[in-house]
């Protein structure tokens, strides 16, 4: 549902969006900064549908998480190029600044982070599952209150997103663990390996603290991380998950 001032909600509708700026997070991942006139606002963790229309009328629609907190009419999406994909290669490589697309949103009300809720927050990301969690971390940094920690599992340094911001989070009081699984920087003390339950326990919060836990990434990663949290004693009701998988790119 679209969220408007005063708590009034309206169903989302397709809106024109202009690409006004961009930045590369890594060689395969681009953040698109869009101007969406009349954007109703959103909550960290929500997503939008993006619609592209070809000259012959053919349309393709894909869903992308919002990468930043609400900021007037500005919307940020981070898109990783999917090899042989239909939409992501164009959004990553072909969409020029000044171009227009259509967006529908915001969508989703379950996997959201609200700053007015009490309790510590644990963010557990796998790959580009970091995108909606980064929106949460950015919102937290804008008004930090309760403690926040992030665990980000990724294959190699060349796939890291938001590197500078993640490096700066500890100075704001947040804990960050980068868990590389295939290749790690030479300076990294942790050697490449899959994220373990012990690391989640050591870099997260004790179950007795009842943190809000958000887990996002590929299905296998999400299931393993959520199961680890439950085995560590975290209440299932405090664990929110979002999965993603191949959609044709």
From TrEMBL:
<feature type="domain" description="FAD-binding FR-type">
    <location>
        <begin position="12"/>
        <end position="113"/>
    </location>
</feature>
<keyword id="KW-0408">Iron</keyword>
<dbReference type="InterPro" id="IPR017927">
    <property type="entry name" value="FAD-bd_FR_type"/>
</dbReference>
<dbReference type="Pfam" id="PF00970">
    <property type="entry name" value="FAD_binding_6"/>
</dbReference>
<dbReference type="InterPro" id="IPR008333">
    <property type="entry name" value="Cbr1-like_FAD-bd_dom"/>
</dbReference>
<dbReference type="InterPro" id="IPR039261">
    <property type="entry name" value="FNR_nucleotide-bd"/>
</dbReference>
<dbReference type="Pfam" id="PF00175">
    <property type="entry name" value="NAD_binding_1"/>
</dbReference>
<dbReference type="InterPro" id="IPR050415">
    <property type="entry name" value="MRET"/>
</dbReference>
<keyword id="KW-0479">Metal-binding</keyword>
<keyword id="KW-0001">2Fe-2S</keyword>
<dbReference type="InterPro" id="IPR017938">
    <property type="entry name" value="Riboflavin_synthase-like_b-brl"/>
</dbReference>
<dbReference type="InterPro" id="IPR001433">
    <property type="entry name" value="OxRdtase_FAD/NAD-bd"/>
</dbReference>
<keyword id="KW-0411">Iron-sulfur</keyword>
<protein>
    <submittedName>
        <fullName>FAD-binding oxidoreductase</fullName>
    </submittedName>
</protein>
């Amino acid at each position: 549902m679209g969220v408007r001032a005063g708590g009034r909600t309206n169903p989302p509708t397709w809106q024109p969006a202009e690409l006004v700026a961009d930045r590369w997070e890594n060689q395969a991942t681009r953040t698109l900064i869009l101007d969406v006139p009349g954007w109703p606002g959103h909550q960290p963790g929500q997503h939008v549908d993006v619609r592209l229309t070809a000259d012959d009328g053919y349309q393709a629609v894909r869903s992308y998480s919002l990468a930043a907190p609400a900021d007037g009419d500005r919307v940020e999406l981070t898109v990783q190029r999917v090899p042989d994909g239909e939409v992501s290669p164009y959004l990553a490589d072909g969409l020029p600044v000044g171009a227009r697309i259509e967006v529908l949103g915001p969508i989703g009300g379950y996997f959201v982070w609200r700053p007015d809720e009490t309790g510590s927050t644990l963010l557990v990301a796998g790959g580009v599952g970091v995108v909606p969690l980064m929106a949460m971390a950015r919102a937290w940094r804008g008004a930090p209150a309760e403690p926040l920690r992030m665990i980000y599992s990724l294959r190699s340094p060349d796939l890291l997103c938001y590197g500078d911001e993640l490096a700066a989070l500890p100075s704001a009081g947040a804990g960050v663990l980068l868990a590389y699984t295939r290749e790690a920087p030479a300076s990294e003390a942790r050697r490449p390996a899959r994220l373990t339950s012990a690391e989640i326990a050591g870099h997260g919060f004790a179950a007795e603290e009842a943190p809000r836990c958000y887990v996002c990434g590929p299905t296998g990663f999400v299931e393993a991380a959520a199961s680890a949290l439950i085995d560590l004693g975290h209440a299932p009701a405090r664990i929110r998950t979002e999965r993603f998988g191949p959609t044709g790119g």
